[in-house]
Amino acid sequence: MGIPDYQLLCAQLRSLAEEEPDWLPVLANASALVMDALDDLNWAGFYLVDQKDPAGRSLVLGPFQGKVACVRIAFGRGVCGTAAALDKTQLVPNVHEFAGHIACDSASQSEIVVPLHTPGTVIGVLDIDSPLLARFSEADKEGLEAFVRTIEEVADFSSRRG
Question: Rounded mean pLDDT of 59-79?
């Protein structure tokens, strides 16, 4: 299992966003790029801050690749909710050792979740699951954080505001 070329992944996403920068196709293509470029995944996608939640403290399922998924996750709950609440990437080698892990797919063994922002605000997370223990490395963390920064630069989230 080699480290993906994250610079190439970012370049591919930039190219796709030139055609259509709206957040929905950008996130759909981003999840497809991740699923294709990284080995040993069983889920890759996004949870977005639910705009219908007056407190803005829950995530709702967004574009993804993989099996059916949990639809709603509260901030602070599970790996995704923790990443959103703390605004910090969560690299979890063994999800069964993560207090409060939400098992949407019992095959998942490890997970990485990276917060997604518009200026100054968490608007969602990139969530990636693997059926292998300790699938994600520090190099994956750095590469995926760069990938999410690329999404933040190229995606137009204006239709999700206000």
Answer: 94
